[in-house]
């Protein structure tokens, strides 16, 4: 059965999103408003009954001086990835994007390949016989994911490099998630390691108060975020980015983005943003002060977000990106070490894939990105 592809309205796209348990927060229509430096378009796959059966948010980034674009579908599109005839979904998309002036297409199939329980990862670290997550036997596999990868390669798609640490893609290939489905909050907390439970109790005894903030509290968050950027040596986004993010996402759904702040003796010590689409909740951005770390505001704010995610009916609390390194001497090891304490699972996605519509321009972009 063939499928038609066309531009769909924001309302059609959002109706499709609401009909799913969840999709990536980067595949909702409002994400195009967040990424103001890109042009955005909602694509819909239409069946014979004129129903929208798949959707994708495309972000177009123009090359300097010429009207040619990189077309990017972050963590999308939302289609039937396990359809044996995957080409009936992807060929119309490539034809449409080429007609729009795209020279290259980048997408991130939202497919988890494998999962590792925290206990297995901790055992591998303590035994010292694993340098990377892939050296550890996964507790769960999705066999169909490998079939999808084979279909993509045969169709001419190129898999992005993982850079040896899981960060070669634009979006993280490895993430850490806490399952919430069919568990009580007591079950979730019992899954924490002793250090996490102790830190949460310490924050409570110290009088740390976690509150849900609003738009007017974003400058407080941003001050802490700048401190964090200096400490962790990354370039911070401007306050205006988070203000635009808040306005765009919450105009679409009042629960799409939340802000949490952890106060101690009237001073904000930690702050986080949380995103929700359907049954999936993401810890998006985190920030913390350099002082009073002993009162454990970061653990307190994470536990509050998990409880609120549970109250919203979420089936997963997603702590987002980790490196796949298990080497304690690697500077990225701290990412997985902190998140392991939640007792959740590491997950590996299929990663990002490129289709060069113009091989010369695609190669030039690859060269430029490798030199950045």
TrEMBL record:
Keywords tagged on the record: Acyltransferase, Cell shape, Cell wall biogenesis/degradation, Peptidoglycan synthesis, Transferase
InterPro entries given in the database record: Acyl_CoA_acyltransferase, FEMABX, PG_Glycine_Bridge_Synth
Originating organism: Peterkaempfera bronchialis
Record protein name field: Peptidoglycan bridge formation glycyltransferase FemA/FemB family protein
GO annotation, biological process: cell wall organization; peptidoglycan biosynthetic process; regulation of cell shape
Superkingdom of origin: Bacteria
Pfam families in alphabetical order: FemAB
Membrane in keyword set: no
Family per similarity comment: Belongs to the FemABX family.
GO molecular function, one term: aminoacyltransferase activity
Lineage start: Bacteria, Bacillati, Actinomycetota, Actinomycetes, Kitasatosporales
């Amino acid at each position: 059965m063939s499928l038609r592809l066309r531009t769909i309205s924001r309302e059609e796209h959002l109706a499709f999103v609401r009909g799913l348990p969840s999709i990536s927060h980067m595949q909702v229509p409002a994400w195009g408003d967040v990424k103001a430096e890109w042009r955005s378009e909602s694509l819909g796959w239409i069946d014979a009954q004129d129903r929208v059966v798949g959707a994708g948010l495309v972000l177009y980034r123009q090359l300097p001086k010429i009207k040619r674009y990189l077309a990017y579908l972050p963590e999308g599109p939302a289609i039937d990835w396990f359809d044996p005839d995957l080409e009936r979904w992807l060929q119309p998309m490539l034809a449409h994007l080429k007609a729009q002036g795209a020279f290259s297409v980048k997408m991130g199939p939202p497919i988890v390949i494998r999962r590792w329980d925290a206990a297995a990862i901790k055992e591998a670290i303590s035994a010292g016989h694993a340098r990377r997550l892939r050296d550890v036997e996964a507790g769960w596999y999705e066999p169909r994911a490998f079939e999808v990868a084979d279909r993509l390669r045969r169709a001419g798609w190129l898999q992005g490099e993982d850079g040896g640490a899981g960060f070669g893609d634009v979006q993280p290939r490895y993430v850490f998630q806490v399952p919430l489905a069919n568990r009580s909050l007591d079950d979730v907390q019992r899954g924490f390691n002793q250090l996490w439970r102790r830190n949460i109790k310490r924050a409570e005894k110290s009088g740390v108060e976690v509150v849900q903030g609003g738009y007017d509290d974003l400058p407080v968050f941003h001050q802490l975020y700048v401190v964090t950027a200096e400490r962790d040596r990354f370039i911070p986004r401007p306050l205006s980015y988070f203000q635009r993010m808040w306005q765009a996402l919450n105009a679409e759904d009042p629960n799409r983005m939340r802000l949490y702040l952890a106060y101690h003796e009237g001073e904000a010590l930690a702050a986080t943003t949380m995103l929700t689409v359907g049954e999936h909740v993401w810890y998006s951005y985190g920030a913390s002060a350099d002082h009073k770390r002993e009162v454990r505001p970061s653990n307190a704010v994470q536990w509050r977000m998990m409880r609120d995610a549970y109250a919203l009916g979420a089936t997963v609390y997603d702590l987002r990106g980790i490196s796949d390194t298990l080497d304690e001497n690697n500077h990225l090891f701290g990412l997985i070490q902190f998140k392991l304490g939640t007792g959740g699972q590491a997950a590996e996605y299929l990663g990002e894939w490129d289709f060069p519509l113009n091989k010369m321009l695609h190669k030039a972009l690859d060269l430029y990105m490798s030199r950045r």
